[in-house]
Amino acid sequence: MIKFHQKQIFIPSILKIGNGELSNLGQYLKEESFMNVACFFSAGIEEIFGEKIFKSLDSTEIKILHKDTIEEIHIENIIHTAFRIPKNVDALVGIGGGKALDYSKYCAFVLDLPFISIPTSTSNDGFCSPNSSLLVENKRKSVKAKIPYGVIVDIEALQTSPESCIYSGIGDLISKVTAGFDWQEASRLGKDGFNDFSYLIANNTVADIVNYQNLDIKSTEFLYHLANSLLMNGISMEIAGSSRPASGSEHLISHAYDEVTKKQSMHGIQVGIATYICSYLQNNQFEVVKNFLETTGFFDYVSKYPLNKSEFIEAVKTAPTIKENFYTVLSDSGNIEKAINFVNTDEIMIRICK
């Protein structure tokens, strides 16, 4: 008798991307009967968008029973906060960048409450992922949470975000090229499982924006494609049950760089640079990656704030040790020397690593 195995996955019930969506927040929450909420803002975000959000909530008679501004992400403090939230809260709402979203997402996970993610920048795919990046014993770790119940993206809010956040999102998105390759190779060698559907989603998100012709990074159309692609990558991780479709050799280099440097760049910036290197090592869409990062202005932006070359080379050397039993192109020791040579000789790397 043949046995069939199907996997249960969770996807957001609220999914909105467009102009002026912050003004519709109250309506979307009321439709789900979330009448009492806790709100978590990134530092400075309440001052910029608070009036619009509070007006929307007031117009639908939604009450804010708890409000916090998030500046740190120690897991112990999040757990402490979780048990101070009133018991009649229906949902948690995170508004802003990575810290506020990771904090409130994990808090919702602890309380088993719905989480509404409202990113005001698209610096990485974390706003729709099933994980939170938190400080555990003063070390940054990816901690299991759960995928948001709702994701609301206001393009007008994204257009006010710093250029660095958009380039970080570009770097994090293009990394799916090398992450997917590493995952396929790990599966081929019997070192990891594989999910075709998850891989297909992640692969298609890159194809969507790479093939998009308008590369004005502040345009409504480009930001819509960027937000949509990063969002779908979060869902691909939920389907895979791991970060594999979105994180490979390029993320190992970035995490290693975080450990050796005193001057970190944004996560997606580091990942984008590492993707350029790893696509070369993999002989995998190297020209596609290079052209996309050139035409969006990513390399020009990074050249203004170059990474430390000696620290980056050290990160390449230590990257394979960052995650146990995680096969990537860097698991082949010969590729480490090849990568170091590329950092030292490639014209673009010379511009962005000094």
SSE order and pairing:
Elements: E1 14-18, H1 25-31, E2 36-42, H2 45-59, E3 63-70, H3 75-82, E4 91-96, H4 98-111, E5 115-119, E6 131-136, E7 139-144, E8 150-154, H5 155-158, H6 163-174, H7 176-188, H8 196-210, H9 220-240, H10 249-260, H11 267-282, H12 286-295, H13 298-304, H14 309-318, H15 333-345, H16 347-352
Parallel strand pairs: 1-8, 2-3, 2-4, 4-5, 5-8
Antiparallel strand pairs: 6-7
Describe, in short, the structure shown.
By secondary structure, the protein is an alpha/beta fold.
Question: Could you explain how this protein is built, in words?
Answer:
The protein has 354 residues and is of the alpha/beta class. It folds into 2 domains: 145 residues, 3-Layer(aba) Sandwich (Rossmann fold), CATH 3.40.50.1970; 189 residues, Dehydroquinate synthase-like, alpha domain. The strands form 2 sheets. A 6-stranded parallel sheet has the order 1-8-5-4-2-3, with helices on both faces. Helix 6 crosses helix 9, helix 6 runs parallel beside helix 11 and helix 10 crosses helix 11. The radius of gyration is 20 Å and the shape is globular. It starts with 13 loop residues before the first strand and ends with a helix.
